[in-house]
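Data availability (excerpt). The following record was deposited with the supplementary files.
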Amino acid sequence: MTIALDALRAELRALLGPEYLIESGDSLETLSKDFYWYSPVLKRQLEEKRADLVARPGTIEEARQIVAACFRAGVPIVPRGAGTGNYGQCIPLYGGVVIDLARLDRIHSVEGGVVRAEAGARLGQIEARARAVGWELRCMPSTWMKSSIGGFFCGGSGGIGSIRWGGINALDNVKSVTVMTCDAEPKLVRLEERDTLKALHTYGTTGFMVEVEMRLAPKIDYDQIIVSSADWERLLDWCDLAARNHLWRKRLLTQFQWPTPSFFKPFVKHFSPGEHVGFLLVDRAQTPEILESAAVAGLACVYRQPLADPPKSPFITDFTWNHTTLWAMKTDPTITYLQCSFAANFRDQFLELHRRFPGEILLHLEWFAAAPDRVTRPNASPDATIVVGLPLVYFKSEERLREIIDACREIGVGIANPHTCFLEEGGRHPNIADKRAFKGEVDPRGLLNPGKMKTYPHNPFDPVAEAKATAALAAGSK
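Predicted structure:
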């Protein structure tokens, strides 16, 4: 591949100029990585992986020419958003070219409750522009100020707002995605409504995403609230009831087990040692009613602040979802995390995990609108709410981590494993056969983020992996 890379390097340099082709140095390293180091397993596996080149197109036509050139050279192509993912989604397993979408950031329109934007547009900018005209994002990750919308669609699933609107698979949240094929003459393929599912949360393996449309929600003026209690069960009972009260308009409800709140250095002055806390983003008009309910339940309101418009920090969202893990790791680098969905008997599951692994797990809970999900829960009630979470885990060894994951599954806790970079192992993909088939249509040579879709039976850069995938499919694996 060296000769092909040398020729490709010269071609891309002529196309983009040296300013937008990264060939070496710290920038090459940085743009080859994401937040994979949240996982000690991925840190070991991916630490030495990097691209040979990083190309930064400024137009879709430049992106098309880059993809065509990579196709002719037969080198891997890995799309990159803002690099805020945690599973090595944008880390190339076999070198090649990372295509950084940061310059494809145009927000074409925000109208009729829909945003249309290039894949590199930042969610923070979309949110500000939407709120200026009476709308807001339905769901977004805790990294929303930096994340790109294409990166969220390709590598994320849900987050802030999901308590009301679910994730990117849910309802009609995603209106369309436009992907570029990876072939000699790259073409644009527009997927609409349910067809978008073939390209969502696929790490860029099923087409190079260049433009998206996402439906928005009517804008709400929010208060940021933190409630506190030394009694975990008392706080849990109220948070769960609040989450399921569909008359209360909420964008976020998070509960943290002490000492997790002590990791949030900018907010620690608001907390009392030993007290568990709940974070809420609620409709400002309903704040008095919600706080009265909390007080009746014996909870203390320790923080209340309007969310500025346009949004300005501090944001309590900066401590929720996977930002929680980041703050914990800043305090104690031995901490890692899991991604869980709990069952109706979640209280029993919490008790069992603490019984089996005393002192090793700190609960971090989020509430999520489970339905209607177009893939995993198509027949669920429209009002269904589930408890999910990103519990913190004091890492001892990879073997112990696997033991905790196995125990979760044994007692009915769903696991989206954040300690793997392989698509099928990291979450639920009941439509993986559709995703494989679509990848076959748009990526005939298997160049798009090769190796990440583990069951795809064509990996020109790893014959052993290709043979295993082919054998698994022949044996009837989904």
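Summary of structural features: The chain is about 30% helix and 20% strand.
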